[in-house]
Amino acid sequence: MKLSARKLRILQAIIDDYIRSAEPVGSRTLAKKYELGISSATIRNEMSDLEEMGFLEQPHTSAGRVPSDKAYRLYVDKLMKVRSLDQREAEYIKETYESTIDQIEQIIFHTAEILSEVTNYTSLAMAPRLNKVMIRHIQLVQVDEELALLLIVTSSGILRDTLIRIPEGINNDYLSRVSNILNEQFRGKTIDQINTEEISSTWDKFLKNRKFLSSLLDILIQRFRESEKREVYLGGTTNIFNFPEYQDIIRAQSFLNLMEEKDLLYDILANSAEDGVWVSIGSENSYDELHDCSIVTATYSLEDRVLGTIGLIGPTRMEYSKAVSVMDYMGKALSRYLTKLYGR
Amino acid sequence: MKLSARKLRILQAIIDDYIRSAEPVGSRTLAKKYELGISSATIRNEMSDLEEMGFLEQPHTSAGRVPSDKAYRLYVDKLMKVRSLDQREAEYIKETYESTIDQIEQIIFHTAEILSEVTNYTSLAMAPRLNKVMIRHIQLVQVDEELALLLIVTSSGILRDTLIRIPEGINNDYLSRVSNILNEQFRGKTIDQINTEEISSTWDKFLKNRKFLSSLLDILIQRFRESEKREVYLGGTTNIFNFPEYQDIIRAQSFLNLMEEKDLLYDILANSAEDGVWVSIGSENSYDELHDCSIVTATYSLEDRVLGTIGLIGPTRMEYSKAVSVMDYMGKALSRYLTKLYGR
DNA sequence: GTTTAGCACTCAACAAAGGAGAGTGCTAAC
DNA sequence: GTTAGCACTCTCCTTTGTTGAGTGCTAAAC
Hints:
CATH topology of the largest domain in chain A: Beta-Lactamase
Number of strands of chain A: 10
Strand content of chain A: 15-25%
Oligomer: homodimer
CATH superfamily of the largest domain in chain A: GAF domain
Structural class of chain A: alpha+beta
Strand order of the largest sheet of chain A: 7-3-10-9-8
Shape of chain A: elongated
């Protein structure tokens, strides 16, 4: 069977209506509300065809029909008109960025909050993958007799540091010699590329303070490990209660429990598109728990390195056109903002 | 009317039973399950008295009875036996502390997670109030031609830092002169005690780079402001679904929404006891939204300065004896751990 | 004076029964 | 190919009993 223009029009009307109302759509409603120029009986016949073709589903015999995941996919790919973002919303996003602080993690966290505010969906934001970023500078700074600070600066200005205790009798000169060696070893590499054994052997130059030096290395490595931490920030988790499909306590709970599985969420974001906006609908998701959710993601970058992904999650009956336009805008705005702050 | 020993025994039995079952307790159940040595009719009479005295409430005529907030208060103050913590749980807490990282905020966050794991309640943890902590050292470190790092070390080793851009032609010497001045101004003060105007006038010594210096000051002040940030970490928010009283979607939602109001939660923690464990039951809470929750808090300290508060929140039908013992243990364990890490 | 057995009464919770309403599929006519 | 009409289906809601746990009261027993 072919998807005639009329069938498409009807399908579009059903999807639009269902996205708005969350109620199965019947032929009579359709005939009355949308100016399709055909009677409900004709619509019934067409709907029957659409069901046979897998675009519609019936919760039970005497209910209206509901779009299938396949229908949403068609909608997203062909039918939907992606509006560009509302002037007011774009303005709002811009403004909030201007007033934020400059720690990269905080910016991402804040981004998640804005996303959920603007869309009323639950938002996800993956912390930047700093292990893809080059180390630019490592330095030990003496704070006082007991303490020194170990600094790691990456090529994008992102910073890690740790306060460490130093043994007695170590002075600033000594620390800067150590710094130089560390720099030789690390500079220009990404965290992924570091070879710890090689470094360890370098310490042989230093006869004294072996213990201190190797603990220093431990700390460094630990800090690098942390950068690989698969952190996900969430926004608007309780927005899910706004949707009638989550009025059921069991479903709401299982959704919220899912949102606590940061590792899984991270995987979802990490496995979405490599660049740009990406939509995954219901059963397209590789995780069972998400079979009645849809996810819209966008990547964000610093200069032209993709650092991470942000996303929205909601019922399959999602306002895709809005979600896609917001994500598109947001991914770009965030990238611009990061590049402005940390780019060269 | 006097609270006879028998009335107390009955009340205790009712509270114990209700805490376990969440079902109104009837006289027959009581007579059968607990060896009180009296018949259900006698218990009925006593229960009627207890209701008159305000210790019991009846959801409706033909239901059993439920302890009132007043009863829980009596229970917490007089009746309950505070067990010391289960060996296994104490062990578990100790172990997890040993494997954590050393950023103070992370430790606190992790504490919240442990708390909710051990108790199955929702946990709260207030970030440390660093504005009560003395500034020990401020330093500017040059990273390369464009960037420098501004460091603030407090008396308890807690660190804040920011990467800043420096104007051309500024060298390390210059930065260390500036550092010295900043140190003169700030060292030994708490963040609360800083007088920004006084500092601003100090810049007059420097003819060049006024703009850089004043932006530096802005950043410093901003960082201090951040330290006053009223941050609260949560653990186990979805644990609330385990309780039958939150099977109702409206109540669950309003609870979860409440948990998003970080400012309010911060206030609650900040206004609990100044030191040690504290219990607030139902209507004792000053916020309406919490009238059917109870909160158990404990403070944590570094050396002997109280830095913040951790807490548990759950239905008034809470296992107070467990909650109190866990909070007591945890407050102390956290303080010990912080002191070990950051104390002198 | 307490304690207890017995009984009438109350009320929520559950289940069954009976519309009402929305929607479908089919048929026959246009 | 389109449409009106009608029988049929199925959920949802309301109504109506029924059950069971629990109470309060009274009168007898201790």
